[in-house]
Amino acid sequence: MPAESRPAHVNPPLRYLTGADVIASMPPIEERLRLAERTMTALGTEAELPPKIGVSPRPADSFAHAMPAHLRDRDGRGDLVGMKWVLGYPTNIPLGAASIHGIVLLNDPDTGIPIGILDGGPITAQRTAAISGVAIRHFAPPVTGRAPRAAIIGTGVQGSSHLPILAYLLPGVELRLHDRDAERAIALADQAGSMTGIGSVKTTGTARDAVEGADVVITAASFGPVRQVLKNDWLTPNVLIVPVDYATYVAAEVARDADLFLVDERDQFIANRDAGLFDGYPDPTATIGEALLARTPRPKGRVLVSHLGVGLADVVFADAILRSAAAAGRGIVLPR
Q1: Which residue among 151, 201, 230, 330 is least packed, with the fewest CB closer than 10 Å?
Q2: pLDDT digit string (tens) for 95-130?
């Protein structure tokens, strides 16, 4: 049967979206939060998500990970099938090139035919921040009589992507920033200072100074020699800590002593702990999705929500982005 005479669902267009296309098609913040929450609650109940598989190409310390995911019919809109393919090359940094590269692939769930190839960088940044936003919305401590206070450790891409989330969920927030690269921290402070919803912003010379008195702490530092330096005595009694840098900053004692310790996906966390990336960490109390479905109340003490990143989030976001791009005519329709 000629391709042009096949039913539309067996002859769908294959659309390529650049990073600019992805950014232009990104859903607004409230929708991103909804997609992130939907992803977390679907894990373990409506989704198939194997552990990351990968190889370690040369040079040393590089990685290439495949993150496939399948989400069964949601909201009557059909299944989702896709994969994130992400590579990290730290040796690119001295060359002036980005160290992380990724794409998200989407397939028609009925036929397996590829329908989308999307630049994964903006998707990773925004889905990660949105999952942090879910944690903040549900588990940030209540604040009365003053502005909320937040700290970001690490002011790269993830630091930047978390700014709109903090401004949206914690209006008037007093924000402190720290980065080993002081100029990068200053650049992000300039960005934050012009953002509606940010009450005030300052940079600090040390991570501990940034964290002092904070209600919400986000750690998004680059992996490196710093390991588990953020300890209990840095923190206020009711703080919410959201690490997106594995255990780069947050010490195991914080997880052990937390009143609630959540992760995005239990098997992935345990696999990474077995590999030595979460030395000394206990088993989590629950996953984020389990806590949301159970309507777990926020305890009076400290809450730690560690999310490592799951391919399902990339696929869910990519689906929404691809639909928006197609409706607006963005991207390049590739020949088959």
Answers
A1: 330
A2: 888 888 999 999 999 999 999 999 999 999 999 999
Q: C-alpha 217: how far from its chain's center?
A: 15
| Spatial CB neighbours of 222, under 8 Å, sequence gap ≥ 6 | 154, 156, 245, 248
- Does the pTM surpass 0.85? The reply is yes
For residue 59, whether the previous peptide bond is cis, meaning omega lies within 30 degrees of 0, is yes
Looking at residue 42, what DSSP letter applies? H
Kindly state the DSSP code that residue 280 receives in the 8-state scheme.
T
Residue type, 26: M
Sign of CA dihedral 168, 83, 318, 112: negative
Nearest to 309 by CA among 272, 276, 281, 275: 272
Q: Which residues contact 79 (CB under 8 A, 6 or more apart)?
A: 70, 71, 72, 73, 109, 110
Of 196, 154, 193, 200, residue with least CA distance to 174: 200
pLDDT, residue 109, reads 93
The length of the chain is 336
pLDDT value of residue 4? 53
Are the beta carbons of 330 and 21 closer than 8 angstroms?
Answer: yes
SS3 141: coil
Q: Give the type of residue at 156.
A: G
* Domains of the chain, first to last: 3-123+312-334 (3.30.1780.10), 132-309 (3.40.50.720)
CA distance 336 to 334: 6
pLDDT at res. 126: 97
What's the helix, strand, coil split of the chain in %, to 5?
35, 25, 40
Amino acid at 173: V
Find the mean pLDDT for residues 321-332.
98
> Stretch 306-332: mean pLDDT, rounded?
97
**Helix H segments across 140-282?**
157-169, 182-193, 207-211, 252-257, 266-274
| CA–CA dist 217, 198 (Å, integer) | 15
Query: At 170, is the pLDDT very low, low, confident or very high (cuts 50, 70, 90)?
Result: very high
Give φ, ψ of 239 to 5 degrees: -65, 150
Q: Which residue has the tokens 């940034």?
A: 210
